[in-house]
Design goal:
mainly beta, 11% helix
Length: 126
């Protein structure tokens, strides 16, 4: 057995033992991605997504240029810089960045709407 084969075996063992709780999820610039996403740490969406996003402790980042439609978002922290059509519930904080465009119902104990952000809908402080 060569030393390269041993190294690769050791590397794959190390990768499988990495705790998945600390992983960063990422949805890139895809044509259309639909479904339900649950995550623990952080998820960044750069492309087009339609569906449910949930995390009891995690942070969702919607990048400038990203679009989420038919959204039911239930996360701890949401930082929106793209387009979201649907409902956003943040248990800790919701930030609408300067390039955000949100249509729907939002609820959070702390809401920041930065200059330039667009919001059309209902807001509830929880």
């Amino acid at each position: 057995m060569s030393s390269q084969a041993v190294s690769r075996s050791e590397e794959s063992l190390q990768r499988t033992s990495t705790p998945k709780d600390n992983w960063l999820g990422f949805v890139g610039d895809v044509l259309k991605f639909t479904g339900e996403v649950r995550f623990k740490s952080m998820l960044r969406i750069d492309g087009n997504f339609s569906g449910n996003v949930s995390s009891t402790d995690g942070t969702l980042i919607v990048s400038n240029g990203a679009q989420i439609t038919e959204a039911i978002i239930d996360v701890a922290v949401a930082k929106i810089n793209g387009v979201v059509e649907g409902n956003i519930k943040a248990s800790k904080e919701l930030v609408l960045g300067p390039t955000a465009s949100v249509t729907g119902t939002v609820s959070a104990p702390a809401l920041t709407v930065q200059e330039g952000a667009r919001f059309n809908g209902n807001c509830r402080r929880t």
